[in-house]
């Protein structure tokens, strides 16, 4: 990834220290308990994350009818797989999917802040919130994608989708060549959060 969106090596340590201090203060004030943060983290580890999005994409790659439903009535498709739908307060109330094609590559951003479909992509990466990324991706998406290592063919249209409190977008990447005969579980391993954000393509083989 380009250094334009890089952060200092100690960013995680500094942020962790702030989180611990804030958690201690909130517990002291009685706003949360010492189990609250653990419960939230457990939710993101087991219920809401990119593993859900990967399941949706894998099913879309193997079922044309499901793919059509996913891009026209996303929440119904999500419900069909038994994934979190409402997820009130976790940016999952109104999710929408767009599918890449040989003619179109899609990219999601949030120009206002960092709205993001947590139930299917997990927590947003730091660079997604970066003002430089948000502004430049809206203005010059092809150049930004190149900095991420993704060179989109000049003949292919790039469409940028701006997430908001009303709609949180995610991308159904194109299915890699040579994956015929793979099971949905195997295909899901080829789907990364970055591919579902549009800053990368699906893997050619599982890592």
From TrEMBL:
UniProt cross-references to InterPro entries, sorted A to Z: CN_Hdrase_a/SCN_Hdrase_g_sf, CN_Hdrtase_a/SCN_Hdrlase_g, CN_Hdrtase_asu/SCN_Hdrlase_gsu, Nitrile_hydratase_asu
EC number(s) stated in the UniProt entry for this protein: 4.2.1.84
Record field: catalytic activity: an aliphatic primary amide = an aliphatic nitrile + H2O
GO MF annotation, one: nitrile hydratase activity
Record key words, sorted: Iron, Lyase, Metal-binding
Pfam families assigned to the protein according to its UniProt record, in alphabetical order: NHase_alpha (PF02979)
Annotated binding of Fe(3+), by residue: 110, 113-115
Name the UniProt record assigns to this protein: nitrile hydratase
Organism: Methylobacterium durans
Gene name of the encoded protein: nthA
């Amino acid at each position: 990834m380009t250094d334009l969106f890089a952060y200092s090596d100690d960013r995680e340590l500094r942020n962790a220290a702030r989180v611990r201090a804030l958690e201690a203060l909130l517990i002291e004030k009685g706003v949360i308990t010492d189990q609250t943060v653990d419960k939230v983290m457990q939710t993101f580890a087991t219920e809401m994350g990119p593993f859900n999005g990967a399941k949706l994409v894998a099913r879309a790659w193997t079922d044309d009818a499901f793919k059509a439903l996913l891009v026209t009535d996303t929440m119904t498709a999500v419900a069909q797989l038994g994934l979190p739908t409402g997820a009130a307060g976790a940016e999952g109330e109104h999710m929408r999917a767009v599918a890449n094609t040989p003619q179109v590559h899609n990219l999601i951003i949030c120009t206002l802040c960092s709205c993001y479909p947590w139930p299917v992509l997990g927590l947003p990466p730091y660079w997604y919130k970066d003002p430089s990324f948000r502004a430049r991706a809206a203005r010059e998406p092809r150049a930004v994608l190149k900095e991420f290592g993704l060179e989109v063919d000049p003949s292919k249209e790039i469409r940028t989708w701006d997430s908001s409190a009303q709609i949180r977008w995610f991308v159904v990447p194109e299915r890699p060549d040579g994956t015929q005969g793979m099971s949905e579980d195997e295909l899901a391993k080829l789907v990364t959060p970055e591919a579902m954000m549009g800053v990368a393509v699906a893997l050619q083989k599982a890592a």
